[in-house]
Amino acid sequence: MSFLDMFNQDLVTSVIRALIPILLAALGGMIAERAGIFNIGLEGMILIGAFCAVTASFFTHSWLLGVIAAMLAGALFALILGYGAVYRKGDPIVLAIAMNILALGMTSFLLVAIFDVQGVFQDPGIVGIPVWRIPVLADIPYLGALFSLTPLGYLALLLVPTLWIVLFRTPLGLRLRGVGERPLAAATLGVKPERYQLGAVLASGALAGLGGAQLALGNVVLFTENMSSGRGWIAVVAVMLARAHPVGVLGAAVLFGFADALGFRLQILGLPPQLTDAAPYVVTLIVLIFTSRRFRKPREAALA
Question: Where does the sequence pass through the membrane (predicted)?
Answer without folding.
Answer: 12-31, 38-59, 65-86, 93-115, 142-167, 233-258, 278-295
